[in-house]
Amino acid sequence: MSFNDAHAFAFSLAISLMAAIVIFRAGDGTLSVIPASEYDGDETEILCEIDPFAR
Predict the structure, then answer these.
(1) What is the pTM (predicted TM-score) of this model?
(2) pLDDT of 1
(3) Per the domain annotation, does 7 fall within a domain?
(4) Cβ pair 46, 32 in contact under 8 A
(5) Three-state SS for 23?
(6) Assigned domain for 21 exists
(7) How far apart are CA 51 and CA 29, in angstroms?
(8) Residue 8 lies in a domain
(9) Backbone φ and ψ of 38, nearest 5°
């Protein structure tokens, strides 16, 4: 997944779930998205966080 695709998917999830979503680089180098509350990996692998409540 490209960064643009991951960002669009994360934004859609954040708005739908009304939850903060993080985009991170997985161990194999691919990009993934997950709710921030469920992420327990290395914080240095987080590329972006999308928070629907942030101004």
Answers:
(1) 0.88
(2) 83
(3) yes
(4) no
(5) strand
(6) yes
(7) 24
(8) yes
(9) -100, -10
